[in-house]
């Protein structure tokens, strides 16, 4: 019963709990530590406490061990944690602010090593002395800014897959997505004793993407900064405006955190807190969950869903009280409240649009049955912009800009040296020597090359040599599949299943298997599944986020969360030569036997593996005049209802660079695609210029052996494009020409935009020296290059000065639409647009669509995911309007 209460969070502090007394906090810690220790009796994971420890060391270790996820408990040794605790205590003594940090902030935001879902490494012990010396003589505020400059010297933004690399691996590759950049900065600040936390909006409300950044504690307050993007002051970043339109900004504090922030949820390992009120105007709404007879549904779980990337994404979950009520605080825009409940062998569910800032309370009724036809048309509105900015002097901004450029040059020099180290055409960065040694020492070099070919770009940059050796030398394929080299390499030799850290486990698992058990496993994959189901107990309490536990540590402890238990089973299957995988669309665990993929689920006691019955889904789509081939994730998604009514997104990814690289309607759904029989929800949406969405929700019933035909509808805004203002096409700029060295060189004389664009509409993009929003904008233009080239309108890409232009290497510009031309903003066009359209001074990129009659119909500034798509849609509408006029279908002003 106690374990059940822990898993439900019922032994946690109440949501509105205030600060505990030191005595109560110590008592609670001892109870939690003891319960955790008793939950893992095998494997000697608590042996470190048998050593002679200083009181401060023991206290810090007990906090870490009580609240770290079980994956960290099993994956790392006690000596590892003791070394890091000693470094942390050393920072508390040696840094001038160390003793001034309150105990609560120190325990929750300095002591923990984990930031997100990264693999834990030796960053804190390896980089402590360097970072300590870097901030010597600085105030706490100055030290935070200085550490961010240090991070910028080493790392720049680049999108990648969902696996979060460790801080040391991020440094080695010199690039990272926002989650990796912010993980690095938090790790660096904590290393020198500064409380720091990674905060993030799970998804933006007004555009398709998410973002993570950092908050640091200074003199009793939390302040934010963009990771690896140094500004001259705190509380300033490129996202000041976008975050003012966020619906949720949250973070997790390991342990029973009792700070002042509103609590979203509590688990035995972390407290999730809501910090939206520090960034945007917020409002609270009471949600009451009722059944069809009006009775409260006690302890119902409510999911708050936001439209983003073509799906209704759950940004938060909250459990109701005994009266079926919960309160949620959000930005003042629209969310969908969703709840479901098992009912017999089926389920019921309900959903309700909630307008925060307008709705003080809503009633959510579970009035929809599984399989019941659902079709809803909704307009979902994001919050209005209400950006807050600190004061920054012109001198401080200039110094920061100059330093920013110098740091870019340091990192660019390092990156250039890494690119020169490519191995066999693979961009391995600092890991090039590992790949070279692996291939050179391999007796079967063709097979070694084949193994490298199935690894992701990120894996190539940080995979250890021991992993490559283990999975090449100790992989063997069952005779039934040995002839299929592609199948064997991808699903037997390959060390990866999902987003776990890669480890060498095959030789060790084979050696650990008793002879009789090994023979059983070699004969039957089902024997492996049955053994895992019986012998590995389920940890429902101590790893609620499902961080992967290494297969060897699951074997050693005989206990794991559901995801890690499945990973061990898959690892045993591959170690015994059976092809195994997590199915890429649904995420189901499968092994290959009898010429087909068999599904298995360890949670289902004694359930045999099986081939799921399937039907076919065919979606018809009629071109809405703007979009002829909607993209999965950008425009629509498909989710499956599980047995309890929860929704699970299907994945149709085409590469490793984020959700925006998904498949599309025509190649996947036009002629039909196979799906497991069951209930699905099709969500589609058209993002409007103000960030709101015209969405449609449609349920689908896929029956085994049958084809289900339905329609994909992209609702269209019929509102005509409005003229937003004017801008002179006679404005001048200095052209940049591309020399033989592929570098941009300025021309001697200026010329007008009109002389380069010709008559009609054109796109003007003003870019800075490589901020994250500018890089996003360039990638979006490249992604839409074929469509933009077909539309044929000129694209002027202007930089503020020669230094900014020189910062873009040829590979950064590769793939831009052919009609793009480059120049320098010598006449202050950015300043003109900023003043005319009341934009934020100094914030790039600035993008407008204007014509040579000086009319502006589109303006964007800063971070706009999907910019290329928005430009394509705007130019398409303008082209259609022009064609209508030529046919006599328009009137003169």
Question: Summarize this, please?
Answer:
The protein is α+β, with helices and mostly antiparallel strands.
Can you walk me through this structure?
This protein has 893 residues and is of the alpha+beta class. Among the domains are: 277 residues, C8orf32 fold, CATH 3.10.620; 162 residues, Glutaredoxin (3-Layer(aba) Sandwich), CATH 3.40.30.10. Helices cover 34% and strands 23% of the residues. The protein has 30 helices and 38 strands. Strands 30, 31, 32, 33, 34, 35, 36, 37 and 38 form a 9-stranded mixed beta sheet that branches. The chain has a 5-stranded antiparallel beta sheet with strand order 11-10-13-14-16, with no helix packed on it. Helix 20 packs antiparallel against helix 22 and helix 21 packs across helix 22. The longest helix is centred in the middle third of the chain and has 26 residues. The radius of gyration is 28 Å and the shape is globular. The N terminus and C terminus are likely disordered.
């Amino acid at each position: 019963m106690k374990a059940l209460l822990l898993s439900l969070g019922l032994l946690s502090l109440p949501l509105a709990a205030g600060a505990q007394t030191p005595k109560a906090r110590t008592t609670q810690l001892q109870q939690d530590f003891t319960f955790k220790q008793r939950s893992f009796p095998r494997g000697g994971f608590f042996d470190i406490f048998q050593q002679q420890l200083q009181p401060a060391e023991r206290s810090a270790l007990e906090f870490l061990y009580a609240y770290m996820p079980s994956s960290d408990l099993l994956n790392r040794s006690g000596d590892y944690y003791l070394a890091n605790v000693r470094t942390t205590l050393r920072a508390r003594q040696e840094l001038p602010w160390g003793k001034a940090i309150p105990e609560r902030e120190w325990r929750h935001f300095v002591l923990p090593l984990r930031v997100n879902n990264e693999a834990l490494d030796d960053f804190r012990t390896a980089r402590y002395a360097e970072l300590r010396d870097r901030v010597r003589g600085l105030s706490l505020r100055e030290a935070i800014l200085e550490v961010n400059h240090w991070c910028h010297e080493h790392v720049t933004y680049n999108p990648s897959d969902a696996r979060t690399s460790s801080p040391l691996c991020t440094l080695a590759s010199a690039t990272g997505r926002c989650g990796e950049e912010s993980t690095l900065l938090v790790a660096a600040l904590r290393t020198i004793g500064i409380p720091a936390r990674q905060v993030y909006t799970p998804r933006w409300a007004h555009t398709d993407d998410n973002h993570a950044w950092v908050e640091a504690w200074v003199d009793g307050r939390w302040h934010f900064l963009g990771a690896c993007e140094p500004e001259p002051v705190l509380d300033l970043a490129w996202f000041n405006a976008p975050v003012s339109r966020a619906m949720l900004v949250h973070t997790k504090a390991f342990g029973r955190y009792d700070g002042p922030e509103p609590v979203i949820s509590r688990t035995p390992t972390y407290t999730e807190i809501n910090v939206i009120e520090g960034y945007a105007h917020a409002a609270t709404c009471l949600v009451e969950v009722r059944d069809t007879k009006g009775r409260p549904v006690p302890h119902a779980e409510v999911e708050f869903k936001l439209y983003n990337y073509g799906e209704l994404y759950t940004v938060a979950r909250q459990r109701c009280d005994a009266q079926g009520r919960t309160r949620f605080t959000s930005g003042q825009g629209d969310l969908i409240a969703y709840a479901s409940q098992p009912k017999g062998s089926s389920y019921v569910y309900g959903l309700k649009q909630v307008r925060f800032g307008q709705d003080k309370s809503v009633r959510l009724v579970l009035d929809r049955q599984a399989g019941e036809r659902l079709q809803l048309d909704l307009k979902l509105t994001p919050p209005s912009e209400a950006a807050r900015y600190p004061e920054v002097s012109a001198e401080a901004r200039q110094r920061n800009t100059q330093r920013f450029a110098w740091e870019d040059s340091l990192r660019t020099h390092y990156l250039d040296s890494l690119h020169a180290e490519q191995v066999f055409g693979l961009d391995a960065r600092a890991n090039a020597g590992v790949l070279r040694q692996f291939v050179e020492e391999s007796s079967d070099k063709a097979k070694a090359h084949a193994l490298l070919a199935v690894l992701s770009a990120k894996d190539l940059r940080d995979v250890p040599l021991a992993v490559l050796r283990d999975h090449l030398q100790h992989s063997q394929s069952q005779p039934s599949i040995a002839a299929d080299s592609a199948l064997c390499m991808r699903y037997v030799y390959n060390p990866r299943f999902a987003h776990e850290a890669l480890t060498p486990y095959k030789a060790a698992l084979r050696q650990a298997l008793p002879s009789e058990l090994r023979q059983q496993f070699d004969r039957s994959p089902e024997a492996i599944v049955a053994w895992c189901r019986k012998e590995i107990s389920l940890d429902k309490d101590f790893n609620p986020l499902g961080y992967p536990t290494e297969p060897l540590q699951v074997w050693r402890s005989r206990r794991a969360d559901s995801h890690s238990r499945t990973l061990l089973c898959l690892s045993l299957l591959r170690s015994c030569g059976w092809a195994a995988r997590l199915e890429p669309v649904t995420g189901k665990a499968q092994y290959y036997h009898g010429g087909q993929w068999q599904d298995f689920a360890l949670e289902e006691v004694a359930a045999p593996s099986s081939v799921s019955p399937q039907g076919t889904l065919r979606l018809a789509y009629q071109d809405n005049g703007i979009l002829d081939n909607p993209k999965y994730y950008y425009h629509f998604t498909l989710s499956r209802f599980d047995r309890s009514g929860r929704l699970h997104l299907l994945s149709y990814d085409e590469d490793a660079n984020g959700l925006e690289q998904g498949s599309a309607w025509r190649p996947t759904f036009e002629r039909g695609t196979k799906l497991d029989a069951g209930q699905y929800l099709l969500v589609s949406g058209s993002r409007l210029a103000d960030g709101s969405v015209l969405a449609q929700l449609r349920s689908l019933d896929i029956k085994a052996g049958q084809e289900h035909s339905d329609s994909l509808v992209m609702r269209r805004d019929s509102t005509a494009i409005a003229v937003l203002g004017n801008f002179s096409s006679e404005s001048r700029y200095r052209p940049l020409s591309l020399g033989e060295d592929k570098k941009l060189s300025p021309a001697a004389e200026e010329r007008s935009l009109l002389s380069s664009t010709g008559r009609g509409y054109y796109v003007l993009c003003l870019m800075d020296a490589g901020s994250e929003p500018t890089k996003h904008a360039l990638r979006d233009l490249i992604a839409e290059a074929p469509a933009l080239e077909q539309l044929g309108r000129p694209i002027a890409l202007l930089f503020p000065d020669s230094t900014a232009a020189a910062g873009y290497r040829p590979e950064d510009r590769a793939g831009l639409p052919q009609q793009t031309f480059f120049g320098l903003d010598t006449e202050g066009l950015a300043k003109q647009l900023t003043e005319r359209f009341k934009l934020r001074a100094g914030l790039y990129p600035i993008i407008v669509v204007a014509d040579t009659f000086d009319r502006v119909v589109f303006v964007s500034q800063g971070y706009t995911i999907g910019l290329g798509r928005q430009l394509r849609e705007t130019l398409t509408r303008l082209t259609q309007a022009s064609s209508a006029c030529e046919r006599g279908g328009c009137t003169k002003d």
